[in-house]
Design a protein that fits this description.
homotetramer, 365 residues, alpha/beta, Rossmann fold, 2 domains, seven-stranded mixed β-sheet, four-stranded parallel β-sheet, 13 strands
Chain lengths: 365, 365, 365, 365
């Protein structure tokens, strides 16, 4: 019997990111309302594709989710069907089970798979494209570090949460003469720290791309004191690194016989600064996953919706194997073959870093 | 005696817009910290320039204002020194008093005037440039309707306020089966309505650029009912217009002998819809100036700061007569001669309007 | 056959109010987890009871609703089963159909009916109690005007929304020298205006309980000017009344041949003030239903949860015919017979009004 | 020469707390507007009183501070003039320097000293009262643990910040099946954890007053899994304690040769839980001082204002040696002699704890 309408499937992979639901909603609504496609969603990312766990996505299913963080399709981290942990003869072994996924897509009658995820998730998407599956990618990273797109959704939401925290810390820092450390996400790229630092009026921004020198931070605090500012706000990306290994005191912890989590760089830095800066109490806040959840910002809702609509347009035009992206203010697309593995770090010579320096922010370098 | 450093003056003109203080701060800090310039600010826009009312702008003056709406320099609306109301022989007459301003700048030793304002304010800036004054313009409009720049600061803040209001209205609309009307700013351009409508999950968006037909709105409400959605959310720009003059009932008010303010289009529309839609209570909210004040959004703080730094860079490079702007994600500049009078309306065929239509939003057309 | 467990039914009536879902959740969870009761909810208030439209309420149904405005049970306004509009012989007539409701409760096996509503909804609850139904009432009014309880949920949320709007209006009022009018809810009681006025730093608060004199408002604006404050913020309750009928200009509108909605008192007042206050632009904001929806405040979530748990405790103790309430900081209860019709207006001699006057707020009297 | 008006002095002591500025504003405005008193503020708490560092407090000084966290008077921690560190003959020694303070008050002509602070700060206030100084106390603690007053300002703000963080963590926890730990303030009293846990829909609340058993937490997580909830939210007060010393793994850190700060109990608990709970990633957030700063909540602005007005009323009535407080919904006062040292812990048998248990929250006991 002839099949008249297309059937598309969605999945979300990797860590949480505000805007996932907005993409799911935009894809579903556009597919149904504009093209009459059928839409399903695999649960738990690629794992659901392997286990054939899917739910129908209808106008009702995606109702009321635009503003919500999280993903109604759930997600899984690090599940790679090309190198997947399965039980075989009572043992757990890693195998390429991508054929199972391909088979499942066929059985289900899925014409196109829309994959929303970060670099890892999209790598698999590319690999499925190589296997002949019609794939469309939608980039997702809270860190804004994908080279192929100017902005990723979730980033503005994360920066806003961090900025609001900096606003809060300011009043206390000022009236109680404190050094306040705020640790934000960014293991490899310092975008969240950079933008929230500028927006939240930080005095020092520490990012992985510009290794810091403890003494320079102490200097900056001293300079501010001379100007009558008896407090300082430091925003530090998770992945910030010292220039010359001057993190001494907290090394004791790392040398402990047991692998120990210290709650991040902010706490280490607080320990180190405490020895060098007198007359100031130092306090740290670790925002953690509050940056990844909650209500999606206005900016991200619009960007996610644009991505979602664009993904369906690519399907309608049969431009498979591509990822939607934003160039300047224009929605565009790029081959998945070209985007994988290309990250976008903060360039220490970029306009934004210069802007920060111009208004007097120190990078501890 | 030789004057060693430059002196720059700032003024803000026109309606309020979140981000003005952030620009003032960025200009002041960059000018002082990077170039050792002296900075002053004229109060009340051009009026202060005419009356020679200025205050010094120092690191202290601009401390703690980054996130705050409003302008520490105050503003005035519609003050045009080239056509200014002055008393002469006991009568109020309109005169060109721009020479007084030029004289004041000279006496004060101001090298460059940085003007932050909308089309009207910048027109005067251009006219002062023509008179030989070193002028740098910074675009300001909450409506995002300047052709020369992709985005203006204040716009994201306004859209966020409107979106939050839509979020609030949603819960009640849904559980109480209401038609909710939200009136947002936008007399000539519908950008705020368009973006907040997409972000806030509106069912109908009414903007000046796309005249509406009352019956189409009623139709949309009816369609939703058939899908089991017993509520609808309508966001309407102040300047939204009916296609065929079908605003009947509220005409009575307009025909009254006395000019009467009805609190805007939302109330008129509510009156009209009430006659046509049965079984639904209709409620309207008029956000008014809550869209122009309060804390500046993260996005706008960064954009304003970039504009402010860029304005000082133009001064340092002696590129006078220009306005800073954003092209894609790049800060740039454009001659004031070219930017005046060029507005940017919502193009009914633009990607963003299509995105809205794709996910099922009606424009009442 | 012996029935082993109790079955309780919930319904929500009247206008929207943040906290309804929190009560529904707390009743359901406590009933199931602590007592093993079965719980159902009638949809659309009493109408659902009449039409026997109910849904089961389980741990799953009430999951994720604590913070959400609205009510998952929907509501209806003004449906009184003791005087209900029904079709009879082709005509709509008003009849007492309460016996149908009683019959439905019996058929469904409902032991106790929990009614969440305002004075009107609770009047019916009392009437059902008089008919022998086991009823527990939970007070709901955004206006905080129930005599039997010190605080009602929803009120703190509404005050917070109004206060945030006042915060936003402040920055613009100050930098642009505006008179800003904010209209908030409160047709008969001025609590929202009073508390948001104190919290939002208003200069004038107009409430139904203290009729105002236009000239006194103008006087206050003048006094502020003398102190160098060239702006004023006025918060006005919907039901605020003029002392001596000095609302002149806007009468034209009211005298129009067609009943016309002006979008409330704020717009009328703006018209009137505009004639009397020179040199100031006057702007008004009408918050409308944004005060009733959106996320429930922390305070209201806790109060609603306490009410919900207390309602189930009353059931367990078979203390029927009562309404839960808050006295000081203690949860208590009161007979429905005693609470109906007793409202709590703002006492012009109360501590809170005196506090407002002490810090210089005018009531326009 | 006869002195006609009173002069009152304010100081703020101890840690930051939203509402301090609101008290300062209310005291100043009421004192000036209602009684014509002169008002000054000592900077840096008691240290400023010792060093005679004061500023005049006028209507202008306190303008625009109502909503702001922090204190315009600054504060100092642990400065006790009855046991104060001073240099004497080149050495630092502890001395009673309270007479210097008394002398300063006399020289300055201060009639009454208003002290805003927590238990430590108020202890000194009482001691100054014993020395014959006219003192009025205003209670300040974010922890809400003062026995003499039902509610302290700052508490609602802190609970709201924590609740918002829990809201944010929820979406990610749910869609990514995480165990989320949120560490909130509360070294000795668990009020913030208790209220934010109820309001933020936590599954487990750990407070100092109810020691926890790790296994019970693991049990609760397991129970939720059986109900299909693959995530859990745990809110933990800084001072939460294990029942039987089952914190094993993180002991390594504590046994380190160097005193080490781990960023709090949340990180320790995460380490411990990680060993016991499989198949879940565990993430922790440490809110730190974001709970103490930023905008003051609506509730706290009103309470602070009431306290401030009441403090001046006590001065007018010459009821010295007292602290203002809230009993139920009534502002009252209590002798400083009676309030010092009386804290209010969470009673494990209180209604609020029972409410939490009723809706299924575990205390890990």
């Amino acid at each position: 019997m002839a099949k008249n309408t297309k059937k598309i499937a969605l999945l979300t992979g990797g860590g949480d990111c505000p805007g996932l639901n907005a993409v799911i909603r935009a894809v579903t609504r556009t597919a149904i309302l504009q093209y009459g496609y059928e839409v399903i969603g695999y649960k738990f990312g690629y794992r659901g594709l392997y286990n054939n766990e899917s739910i129908p996505l209808t106008l009702d299913t995606v109702s009321g989710i635009l503003h919500k963080g999280g993903t109604i399709l759930y997600s899984s981290n690090k599940d790679n069907l090309f190198d997947y942990l399965v039980e075989e003869n009572g043992k757990m072994v890693k195998k390429d089970v991508s054929d199972v996924a391909v088979e499942n897509l066929k059985k289900e009658g899925v014409d196109t798979l829309v994959v929303i995820g970060g670099d890892g998730t999209l790598t698999s998407a590319r690999d499925f494209a190589r296997k002949g599956i019609n794939v469309i990618g939608v980039p997702k990273t809270i860190d804004n570090d994908l080279a192929a797109t100017d902005v990723t959704f979730g980033f503005n939401s994360a920066v806003s949460v961090a900025t609001e925290a900096l606003d809060r810390l300011h009043t206390t820092a000022e009236s109680h003469h404190r050094i306040m450390l705020l640790e934000v996400m960014g293991r490899n790229a310092g975008w969240i720290a950079l933008e929230s630092g500028i927006a939240g009026s930080a005095d020092v921004i520490l990012i992985p791309e510009i290794p810091y020198d403890l003494n320079k931070i102490v200097e900056k605090i001293g300079e501010r004191e001379k100007e009558g500012k008896l407090f300082s706000i430091i925003v530090v990306a998770e992945g910030a690194k010292s220039k010359n290994g001057d993190v001494v005191i907290s090394k004791i912890v790392e040398d402990s016989p047991d692998p120990i989590r210290l709650g991040g760089i902010a706490n280490k830095l607080a320990l180190d600064l405490e020895r060098l800066v007198k007359d100031h109490e130092i306090r740290s806040t670790v925002l953690g996953h509050t940056q990844r959840g909650g209500n999606t910002s206005t900016y991200d809702r619009i960007l996610s919706t644009r991505y979602g609509v664009a993904a369906v347009e690519l399907i309608a035009q049969e431009k498979f194997g591509n990822m939607v992206c934003l160039k300047g203010d224009t929605i565009s697309y790029e081959s998945l073959e070209n985007v994988i593995g290309h990250t976008k770090d903060v360039d220490p010579n970029s306009e934004l870093v210069k802007v920060a320096r111009s208004i007097g922010i120190s990078f501890g370098d």
